[in-house]
Amino acid sequence: MLNNLFYNHLTQSGVDEKHIIKFPFDSGRDLLKIGENLMDLDVLSGERLVDPKKFLDFIMSITNDNEKFYILLDEVQLLKSFEQVLNGFLRQDNFDVYVTGSNSKFLSKDVITEFAGRGDEIHVMPLVFSEFLQTFNGEKEDDFAEYQVYGDLPAGALMKTDEDKMNYLRGQLENVYLRDIVHRYGILLTSD
Prior knowledge:
- The chain is mostly helical.
- 45% of the residues lie in helices and 8% in strands.
- The longest helix is centred in the C-terminal third of the chain and has 24 residues, at 162-185.
């Protein structure tokens, strides 16, 4: 949503694309832009996080005028010391920063406390049935059956094939929910 809908909103509102910086911390292509060695970086296991100096050097090199910059950061929990980096951005008058994260550390009360009073937290909720209906042109009964089977996640509602929807839901379960629970509580998985 952040990197698509909000980005499109900014460009349609007249913001120059050069003043919109999108940086997903789970993208090898973007990590190479800041000089990270992907061979040493295993962000999925959490063994090593992205170097904040490399990231800040990159940001400062491309924000070299006094116009407003919109900085859209995805999976920011993969950046080492992200709390300090974000607090530093708060002191930049021409930075408007938007952040997403998907793991248990990012969503913990500790992080919310860290930024209390210095930002807004937006919870993205599942779609209610009336919102889900806006993506379909069929009969209500068929749409409700679809809603019951595939659920109410916004990205899933936009997918066209059953296979895409199932793969998306499986990926959400395995890569977001289970991984974050295992990481947060230090659960060891066995192959038994």
